[in-house]
């Protein structure tokens, strides 16, 4: 693999760095000004809704101080870590190749039979990746809703944070879902690049198309599996960031009140 195209930086998300290393972002413009990018994502109706939300936030009343002196932040952090650990394990299990269908984990890798032909190609992996994305979104949103319910009554400041978090989530969730859906398409580029490179070897087309040979150590499909798994783990971290920010805000508030 050649070096990154130059979009890579320590400030980039893990997912962006991962895709950059796979060389599937060539020709895609990248903009560093966060405010400029965010401004183009929010239309007039969204701006009005956010302005109204900010107005409501400024008027929120103080909550009962007795509800502050607890350890909600620590408990939520524990729930967060438990969720992340279980999701990482879930992704790892789905990449275990087994011949026993009864022992296959949910969302297991597509089973290949015979030669890997161009008719089916990447489509089974696209479905596999999309199922993982749907599971991540469902599990994380469930904990995010529960976290909001816990955090909102902790203090007036945290109630404002929850209000803003909810408003921004509702405004940007469509855009985020659309952008993350493109990750699978980018992986398709990588899939066909690896496969076509393997097929380029002289008099080795039949060997290189065999699933067993492709999955052997150093095989192109084994490499693609590793890269797809790393991409899923990087996307998981990205999806967890807003929830982690909410929980850390709660921890910070509780720390200041002690």
What is the CA-atom radius of gyration, in angstroms? 22 Å
Beta content comes to under 5%
Continuous helix count: 9
Structural class: mainly alpha
Distance between the termini: 51 Å
The string of secondary-structure elements, in order, is HHHHHHHHH
- Unreliable residue stretches: 1-8, 62-69
Instruction: Count up the domains.
Output: 1
The major pleated sheet works out as: none
> What is the mean predicted local confidence, pLDDT?
76
Determine the fraction of residues in helical runs and give it as a percent range. 55-70%
Q: List how many beta strands DSSP finds.
A: 0
Overall shape: it is elongated
Secondary structure: elements and pairs:
Blueprint: H1 14-21, H2 34-41, H3 44-58, H4 72-94, H5 123-151, H6 156-199, H7 205-209, H8 211-215, H9 220-257
Descriptive account of the structure:
This protein is mainly alpha-helical and 258 residues long. The protein has one domain. Helix content is 68%, strand content 0%. The chain has helices at 14-21, 34-41, 44-58, 72-94, 123-151, 156-199, 205-209, 211-215, 220-257. Helix 3 (44-58) runs antiparallel to helix 6 (156-199) and helix 5 (123-151) runs parallel beside helix 9 (220-257). The radius of gyration is 22 Å and the shape is elongated. Mean pLDDT is 76; it is low at 1-8 and 62-69.
């Amino acid at each position: 693999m050649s070096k990154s195209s130059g979009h890579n930086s320590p400030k980039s998300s893990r997912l962006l760095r991962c895709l950059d290393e796979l060389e599937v972002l060539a020709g895609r413009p990248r903009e560093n000004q966060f405010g400029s990018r965010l401004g183009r994502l929010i239309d007039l109706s969204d701006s009005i809704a956010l302005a109204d939300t900010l107005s409501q936030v400024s008027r929120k009343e103080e909550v009962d101080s007795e509800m502050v002196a607890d350890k909600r932040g620590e408990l939520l952090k524990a729930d967060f870590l438990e969720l992340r650990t279980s999701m990482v394990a879930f992704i790892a299990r789905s990449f275990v190749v087994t011949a026993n269908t009864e022992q296959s984990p949910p969302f297991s890798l597509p089973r290949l039979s015979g030669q890997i032909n161009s008719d089916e190609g990447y489509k089974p992996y696209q479905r596999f990746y999309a199922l993982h994305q749907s599971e991540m979104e469902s599990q994380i949103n469930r904990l995010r809703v529960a976290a909001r319910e816990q955090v909102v009554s902790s203090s007036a400041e945290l109630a404002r944070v929850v209000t803003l978090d909810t408003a921004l989530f509702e405004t940007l969730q469509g855009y985020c879902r659309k952008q993350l859906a493109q990750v699978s398409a980018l992986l398709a580029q990588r899939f066909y690049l690896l496969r076509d490179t393997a097929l380029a070897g002289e008099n080795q087309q039949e060997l290189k198309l065999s699933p067993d040979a492709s999955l052997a150590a150093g095989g192109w499909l084994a490499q693609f599996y590793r890269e797809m798994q790393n991409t899923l783990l990087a996307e998981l971290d990205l999806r967890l960031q807003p929830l982690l920010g909410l929980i850390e805000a709660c921890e910070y508030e509780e720390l200041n009140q002690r």
